[in-house]
Structure formats: structure tokens, C-alpha cells
Amino acid sequence: MKWEMMQGVRKTPLFKSLSERDWEDVARYLHGHCYPADSYLFFQGDPPEALYIIWSGRVKLVRHTDQGRDVVVTVLGPRQLIGEMAIFDGRPYSMTAVTLEDTAVVTITRNDLMEIIHRYPAVSFEVILELNRRLRLCNELVRSLAVDRVEQRIARALLRLKDLGGAPAPEGDGVMIDIHLTRQDIAEMTGTTVETAIRVMSRFRKSGLTRNYKGRTILLDIEGLEAIARGR
Amino acid sequence: MKWEMMQGVRKTPLFKSLSERDWEDVARYLHGHCYPADSYLFFQGDPPEALYIIWSGRVKLVRHTDQGRDVVVTVLGPRQLIGEMAIFDGRPYSMTAVTLEDTAVVTITRNDLMEIIHRYPAVSFEVILELNRRLRLCNELVRSLAVDRVEQRIARALLRLKDLGGAPAPEGDGVMIDIHLTRQDIAEMTGTTVETAIRVMSRFRKSGLTRNYKGRTILLDIEGLEAIARGR
DNA sequence: CGTTTGCTTGATACGTATCAAAGTTGGTGG
DNA sequence: CCACCAACTTTGATACGTATCAAGCAAACG
Predict the structure, then answer these.
(1) Suppose B100 and one of A112, B58, B65, B112 were both cysteines; which one would form an S-S bond, judging by CB atoms 3.0 to 4.6 Å apart?
(2) Domains in chain B and their CATH numbers?
């Protein structure tokens, strides 16, 4: 595995508190992999094999339902973990992980991770913090789905995506969400249908809140979107 | 604190793997408290003081929104933890905890718990498993809110409540949900309004799926409810 | 008791899903 | 370079589920 990649992983919250010596021990368990866009890291229902740490690229986590409709629970980027849940309790992955772009990851097998956790309490504590973070985000999502209208939920989703994949807009001003997402993805993130997502998005565009640029969305009026996210 | 209470807490997943000696050490940090029905353990926004372990009774966790509407994220019963999230990352409680009945709890202050976690890795691992469980439930809730109709969500909620507070029906057959919940609570659990919750509940009753008994709900046709929960 | 709290029903309005069809874009191979 | 195909986007018409508003009723309670 490339050296820079190792250094990146070493600075991950999960491992940052390890001493140099302990880190060298842990590093032996790491493996590097690359995936092209639109490939699957694992499927919902698969037995948990490994923990993934994203090095570069983005991955979406999709929850499938009995009858067709999917829910995109979250999109993850560099330094974030995938598959922790299944790893710890040993039950099958509860979602499918799909790359949105070319993606490089570092993996640790379930057995190795378990060993690491029991050997290094500091890692264990970081895991607790990470699960906590996820739980807070998830609760927020529940609240939003329960009480907000589609318009608010989409505004919220855009703002969240800006934090994850925001970059200065390539021309003019605003912040570009540099992640390839279809309207279908946005619909599935916000629990609505493609058509409704499209209608809302173009309403945003016509109001000057956003702009499109080569398939990406540029946020022009963050405050305006925040006002909508809060409910007008 | 009463001895039987201590024994109960000792058998909690969190502590069950401790040796007798370690347990005696940990037990010094525990405190017992009692609350009448409809009282508050803490409010959303309060700084995190303590972890609560329910000894008897039920507690609901409510998330307040900026403009009035609330969401009941979950209902918890004996042996379950409350407040872990806030404890670990130190941020304010993200929800309000309200007792639904007379409730006895055991508490551990934040500082003490942190110390315990760092001293006993086994406890730490149990915490990870518990957060995991919560996260899975939360994701399931997200999926349900995103794609299911109110009828399905309420059916699901009833089935979940049965697992939490189910008891053989006192007369006739069926399973009684022995938790005092208003229609308002059910509405807030499923992200709908009182009126709609009432309409759905009485439709269930008229179809012979449920029955009312002194303010409690008795589930008569579990399979029928499961069919609705899966979407007809 | 009167008052509060929770339950119930009905009429109406609005948001969103659904179905249908056409326009747009990007990529592939001839 | 163009033609073509598939995937994605867009718009419109309509139907349905649910929220909202309004009012009456029952049970619990101080």
C-alpha cells in the first residue's frame, strides 16, 4: 500500500491517538483497494467481512426495501468509516455501499479489527464517538422526515452535502457540491420521488438559490437555503 | 440503594461481563432515583450530567422542533440506557426524557462513567454494541418514514411496542401493550397528526386487528398487522 | 360539578405521488 | 463527425393521502 495512504489513515480519528509503536503494529492489518465509479463495496444482507475507511472518493449507503423503493441514508467521503455497524455486532450489512466516483479504500477484516479494539482501548473509545456522531445525524434525519416538507428536506440535504463535498464554484461565486448525484439520488436521500425532487430543485434554481454546472449543483444563496431548511 | 436493584443492574449487558471484584468497584459509582409518571429526567439542550439505566417503568425520548411539533424517537424500558449519546461526546442532550409511568433509575455521573470505560474495556465494548443496536433501529425508522404510509408506520410502531411492553391480554386473547400512550404519542412516534393516528387506530379496531382495554391497546391479529407493516 | 385532557368525527384544502410523454445529455460505435 | 441508444431530466394532468380546521363527546380530576 502506498505510503501517503498509510499516513492518511494514521491521521484518521480512529487511529490518531495511537503511539508510533502501536500504530506500526496496527498498520500490518490494513489493506488497500480501489474501485471504479458505480461499483459495490458490499450488498445489504452480505455477512460482514471488513471495515472500510475511505481514502479518496465518495460512497453512498443505500437501504433497499421489500418492494423496490430505496433510501439513500447517507453519502460518505474521505476518512469516514463504512460498515462499522455490521462489523461490531456480526449481523449482515444493513445497507448496500455503492461508489459514486472512483474510490480508494483501506480495509481491515472483522477479526483483525476486533483484536485491535480489545488491545487498544483508545481505538475503542474513538469507535464510540464515531457511532455517537452517526446516531445524532440519524436522529436528526428522523426528525426531518417526520415533520419537514419535501422542500425543507431537500434544502437540508443540499446544505449537508455542501459540508461533505463543498468546493468553491469554478466560475462566478457560490459553493459547488462536487459529488455526482442524480435527481434520483436526491429523491432517495429525502424520501420523495424523482419528479418531486426535480420540481423542487428547479424551483430553487429559478429563485436564484442554486445554479447547475455540468451536472453539479452550485449553491448561490446559502442563507436563503438555510431559511427554507428552518421552514421559511 | 436496594440490593435487588443492584443485582438487576449488575445483570445489565453493560456490566454483565465484569468479574465480581470489578463489579464491586464499579457499583460504588451507582446512584438510585425514583420519578413519578410524567416527570422529566432531563431536557433537550441540558448539559450531560449522567447516564441513566432504567430499573422499572418506561421513559419516552422526545425531540422538539423549532416550531412546536415534537417527535417521539423511542420508548425505553427496564435495563435500557438513556443519555449515552450526550455522555460520550459531551454535547447537550439531543432529546428530552419523560417518564410515562412511575420509574426507578440508576445513574452514573459522566465523569465516573468515563473512568469506568477507560478502566474496563469489556464495558466499553458493550457500549459499542448498544450504540450499534440504536443505530440499526434508527436506520430502520428512517426507512420507514421515508417510504411507508402512515398505516404501515403505525402498524410497525405497534409491533415494536409489543416487543417492548407486551403482556398477555388480561381477558380474552391477544397481546396487550402495557404502556400508557396517548394517541398524541403514537402520532409523534410515527410522524403524523393526532387526528390521522386516531383514524388509523380506529380503522384497525374496526377490522378486528386490535382492541382497547382501559386505555391500553391489545393486539388481536399480529399477523394481520405484520402484513400491513410490510405493505398489504 | 365545572374544567381539563384526551378522543372522535366530518368537511375541506393542500402537498405529493403517480402516470404519461417528450426533451436533454453523454457515451458508443460506425 | 454523426447517428443512435440509454440514462437522466423535465413538464403536465390527475388522483390520493394526509394535514388542517372545526366541533362535539367522554372520561378523569381537583
Answers:
(1) B58
(2) 3-145 (2.60.120.10), 149-229 (1.10.10.10)
